[in-house]
Amino acid sequence: MPSGGEEKWVLPAHDKLPKGKKLMLIILDGWGEQIADQFNAIAVATTPIMDHLKTTAPERWRLLKAHGPAVGLPTEDDMGNSEVGHNALGAGRIFKQGAALVDMALETGSIYEGEGFKYLKEAQPNGTLHLLGLLSDGGVHSRYNQLQALLKGCADQGFKKIRVHVLTDGRDVREGSSLDYVTTLEHDLEELRKRGVDARIASGGGRMAVTMDRYENDWGVVKRGWDAQVLGEAPHQFKSCLEALKTLKENDPKLNDQYYPPFVIVDDEGKPVGPIVDGDALITFNFRADRMVMAAKAFEFEDFDKFDRVRVPKIKYAGMLEYDAEIKLPKHYLVAPPHIGETSGEYLVHNGVRTFACSETVKFGHVTFVWNGNRSGQFSETLEEYVEIPSDQGISFNVKPEMKAIAIAEKACEALHSGKWDQVRVNLPNGDMVGHTGDLDATIVGCTVVDKAIQLMLEATEKVGGIFLITADHGNAEDMVKRNSKTGEPMKDKKGNYQILTAHTCAPVPIAIGGPGLLKGAQFRTDLPTAGLANVAATFINLLGFEAPKDYEPSLIEVVE
Ligand SMILES: O=C(O)[C@@H](CO)OP(=O)(O)O
Ligand SMILES: [Mn+2]
Ligand SMILES: [Mn+2]
Fold it and tell me: How far is CA 263 from the centre of its chain?
């Protein structure tokens, strides 16, 4: 019976599917389904297991939507991403996500009426307002038109001095596009200067080298940002951001937007134009949590021992959203995040289901924190165990495309064989993390290793008489080139080179079920053609022998006689 005692958590037994079958739940990060050509790293990779599942049991293999409104994003043009994907997978429902919530708050102006913005205004009239975040149209962590609107709105709301601390992208958008975004930003800041607002870029750096680390993989990334944004110290000083990007790229032509080293913008006397100091206000304008949580801790925590902050300015700090609902970080924010409660993890714990979750650092939080509705911690110390395998640090993953896939698989097999867990859940990051490097050959290697890891876990599932469910959180590796949106033809740049795509896609993702524990006659329904990731939770709750919560998106399976 449910430990929580509350009736609302009771999940009735499924009328046909039995309890007690061990479930191996595998999330392939960045693994979509696309036309099989030379730029589809998954199609080119050696993936006998995934091929076998697709071809031998069509009633147990299908596609799911993993982008746009199906995962709570504003439009069908919005590519999927890990945050919205794992939210949907774990919560079994579709929640309007950060991108859409901020759009609405900016359109209605409510963003300036909330407690968060009022708190920032306490820094007026003398405090500088600082804006820190990803300069990009990707819509995964931030979107430029939101920064643009926020700049105007903050000037309207009386901030007289504004400084922008830029993180360049090149991961969710075309490599090299940072120059365009900075040019546009400089134009928008010029418009503010014409209105008498002292508005400038104050520092910069690439998102993978500066500030935007996650899951505490490398605090050095956050420190480099802190030194440039707060202390005004960095290995490079320039008079303008454009000059910085151009010079740094001339010095190292292979440098890509994701990895620009930190730099500080200085005036004619060599003085930083905008370090964050006492009495200032700060907004981190990324709406997505995972790559802002560490910086938020550095700006907000009194006691902080991850690196020497040297000087901790007394500022009014607000996040675009609250980034961690469990620890209430940051305390002040402009837009309330989606309240994602009653997730599958919480239901399963209340019904006595024991869960083991594992991945390597770079995706560990996806398969725990994000899966549980952007909440840190476990629902139960006895019924759950989350295991993190340390990721390689300080490298671009095309250097070691196998990553820790086999180690994750071995951990999962051990957990399955231990008999201590009813559900073993893993995320295999290779398709996505290597896909983001844009290195096609390395991504092919990464996907080949993923298939090997799946093989190990399916063999273990076989041995324990269990069930497997394999799916993905969004596309990436299945398309590594920019295509003509009409013809689908790969596009070349002016020099005749193919334009490599490092970003996610809007492709559907596969889902496959099977294993000796799966009841004969259990198969995918054919009456849910537009089903998406939010239908997966009801599906695995059924496979564990329970009816799903009434308000969850419907289960994908039926049992035919
Ligand atoms: O790396 C990330 O932060 C995003 C891309 O910006 O990828 P994912 O959503 O797969 O984590
Ligand atoms: Mn992902
Ligand atoms: Mn990704």
Answer: 26
CA of residue 495 to ligand 2 center, whole Å: 31
Ligand 1 atom having least distance to the Cα of 82: 9
Instruction: Tell me the three state secondary structure of residue 61.
Output: strand
**b/e code 397-418 from CB counts within 10 Å (16+ = b):** bbeebbbbbeebbbbbbebbee
Q: Which residue's CA lies nearest to atom 3 of ligand 1?
A: 291
Ligand 1: residue whose CA is nearest its atom 5: 172
Nearest atom of ligand 1 to the alpha carbon of 172: 6
> Which stretches of 355-427 are DSSP H helices?
361-364, 405-418
Q: Is 82 a catalytic residue?
A: yes
Q: How confident is the model at residue 1 (pLDDT cuts 50, 70, 90)?
A: very low
Q: Are 461 and 468 in contact (CB under 8 A)?
A: yes
Ligand 1 test: best mutation among 29, 140, 437, most atoms within 8 Å of CB?
140
CA distance 356 to 422: 8
The sign one gets for the Cα dihedral 120, 127, 191, 274 is: negative
171 C-alpha to ligand 3 centroid (Å): 8
**β-strands 522-524, 557-559 pairing:** antiparallel
- 386 with 357: CB under 8 angstroms? yes
**Lookup result for tokens 């801790």:** 297
CA of 81 to the centre of ligand 1 (A): 6
Sign of CA dihedral 320, 324, 329, 331: positive
Q: State the amino acid at position 495 in one-letter form.
A: K
Q: Confirm or reject: Cβ of 171 under 6 Å from ligand 1.
A: yes
> Tens digit of pLDDT for each residue in 189-225?
999 999 999 999 999 999 999 999 999 999 999 999 9
Looking at residue 377, its amino acid is G
State the closest ligand 1 atom to the C-alpha of 432, by its place in the atom list counted from 1. 10
> What is the Cα–Cα distance from 43 to 160, expressed in whole angstroms?
54
- Read off the amino acid at residue 428: L
Counts of helices then strands in the chain (DSSP H, E): 16, 17
pTM of the model: 0.95
pLDDT digits (tens, 9 = 90+) for 166-187: 999 999 999 999 999 999 999 9
Nearest to 507 by CA among 398, 405, 432, 444: 432
Nearest to 480 by CA among 27, 28, 42, 170: 42
